[in-house]
């Protein structure tokens, strides 16, 4: 049947439909006036029929927006003759089951036959009413169209109301889409936008699209009308602000917000409207990769704050507001999102340098659709350039460090302001940036010239990273996020950036928590970490090793007092360690002494050089003499012999063990029981001085992961180890994989996991007696 034909009709009374009711065409009504009461005296069918008013949101009921569903359909055409009145009476009325779909423009059946042979367009629906009968459990929605009425019968009142509100919403959003698609007067458009926002806020429907659909309509409107005045921009933003309180803006709207932040950063809209929107993004966004324009909008908002008179003070207050007044930030997503925004902004500063390196399309080119190779500009190579110095006297030789090296983009080879002399090699080859960094230590002063705007962006977001590092609760996660060094190589060659970042690394080095300062080391073997970058000779080092010494001190004070760490220092940083020790740095003196004590250095000449370095300072000489005394005592203990078995009384402490072992000869001690004592991981310092130890019982002690790591480095001959009821975890148990002599291991009632157990079995071939009861691996 054709729903779009026919004339206006009326209601019904008794067993027939009256044709005396006038259905006012809603095309002439205000959009917000569509929820009219209608004619309460209208009857339909033989029994008393009640036409319910529109259910407003104040009723408290909430419904999910329907997109499709099964329902009974009946179509009643307006009677024109006596025969048609009889055919449309209640007793001859026929109901058809249909699976209806609520599309964006019409009501469509999955089986287009019978009453629903053609779709019912929302524009043809003149009125929607709720119907119910007192003497019959029928729950219907009445849809009036020119020429008749469509009745939709649901199974219960809740489903009926759900269909009613869903149809009402679809009809209204369809009309708003048509009205705002062809704007004429912007004052009228603004009123319609406000009405659309009010409708979305008062709707009893609960669905993401209820707020997102109006935002998409408005974003499309703004995208197609880019010639609006700034005042119109602000009026529209203020109008849609209530919708943004609980919803992220769609991508096109983010682009519009970004433009406003760039063009009018001092507008009050930025503070009053954008602030809660950005706060919600930072608190609730889960992945900027899926919505990059949210990140770009957040970035532009922060830059707009930086343009205010107070500048970074405003940004600092904003960061503090995101953290909250307490010592613990209640929103776990704030820090990762802020770091993601900072990293993306820092990358954007060096975007042209990065693209000239790999000739990949820039973000700007991607946004402009220029992704094809033949559409792009010719590559702009990086050149190692050197400003021409004043002509020196003939007898004067200029060292390399007197000429600061600049890395620039050669945009126009014929331009006079880009012409530079070649480097000392005189070759025509184009060295890459990392090769430039490795020319000589003097090249560590390498600088990259950034445009003024990029320089401001870099300074702003580098300072935000510094602010984040000042919060104790954020520092562990921040250290973990920055551990892989997620910055472009060009940024690490930029002296200004590395100087700002040095503060963050210093904060990590000063933090006593292992989870923080352990992130100074590389994330995996073969890759440099912050420890390498800020060590003497590293790309980012701009001092005489003070930060390096601070990092070594904190790492040596934790569980990194191991042969592995000392071996790494001996292989890569022995020169800086000796230089700092020569200058009296106590941490470096201790490092050199440990290298001698643990036989890290095999070369005799290097050993003699280390000894000479230690003897050149008072602190070094004192510590070297103490080392010699310990070595003599150890040899004396081994010569004298002593007991082979020893059991400490219960409740003994670390101090008791140290006092006992220092009072006699225990060079031959093979079996030591510390079961049910109060010893901790600190006693490992004493245990590693027992070279003959083969059996160690730590049952029901507080010996933990740090002690296990130290034992695994020094007690290679240990065969039996009892860790029953100790607080050890996978982190410490994995270190036992280097103790190849272990044949008996008790991990009963520990935090051992199945994966770690399988790993230990694979790496300890002599392990035959294992107790893993009451663990996850049991």
UniProtKB/TrEMBL annotation:
Metal-binding in keyword set: no
Keyword tags: Cytoplasm, Leucine-rich repeat, Nucleus, Repeat
GO cellular component: cytosol; nucleoplasm
Region: Disordered, residue numbers: 369-399
Compartments (UniProt record): Cytoplasm; Nucleus
Main location: cytoplasm
Start-end of Pro residues biased regions: 387-396
Domain PH: 65-174
UniProt protein name: C-Maf-inducing protein
Lineage of the organism: Eukaryota, Metazoa, Chordata, Craniata, Vertebrata
